Amino acid sequence: MSFNRGLFSSAKPDWATPEALFEQLDREFHFTLDGCATAANAKCPRFFAPEQDGLLQDWGGEVCYCNPPYGAETIRWVQKARKAVDKPKTTVVCLLPSRTDTRWWHEPGRSNPSPERAPRSSICTPPGGSRSRRSSTRLHDRLGR
User: Where do the structural domains in the chain lie, given as residue ranges?
Assistant: First the structure.
């Protein structure tokens, strides 16, 4: 069996969210915070940049969008999102790679089940915006409202 190793690479952890996808999600959720961003790729006026470390910040009471770095640290962001939605009036929507062989993919959710949306095609773009084929990605949202 042959496959494109680039689709499973963590060499580039910071894949940008396509603007059209974010706009569609924002119309539905009305995000108040981007939990994991840089000044160059933040999707919300309020965001946590690497120097602020969104993993250490409180997401409680927010409607948070999070496109975490892909790779070994993804699990930490998924765990953060799962804990955050246990707080009142908190919603977190994460854009995650489809990695069914990873621990974070299979860890059970917390108080609420997690609705998932799997797009039919790859949707991520690398920094700079050029289109790149990635393995399928899922939108993982938890409604803690």
Answer: 16-144
Given a contact cutoff of 8 angstroms between Cβ atoms, the answer to whether 33 and 63 are in contact is: yes
Six-digit token string for 124: 């991520």
User: Residue 51 corresponds to which tokens in the numbers above?
Assistant: 């120097």
CA distance 85 to 111: 8
Measured torsion, CA atoms of residues 118, 19, 16, 39, in degrees rounded to the nearest 10: -140
Per-residue tokens: 87: 């707080």
CA distances from 61 to 65, 72, 86, 128 (A): 13, 28, 10, 32
Where do we find the tokens 């250490």?
56
pTM of the model: 0.72
Judge residue 38's burial from the number of C-beta atoms within 10 Å of its C-beta, 0-12 exposed, 13-18 middle, 19 or more buried. Answer: middle
The pLDDT tens digits of the residues spanning 87-113 come to 999 999 988 877 667 666 666 554 454
What's the CA gap between 4 and 103, in Å, rounded? 22
- Please state, as a whole number, how many other Cβ atoms lie within 10 Å of the Cβ of residue 47: 20
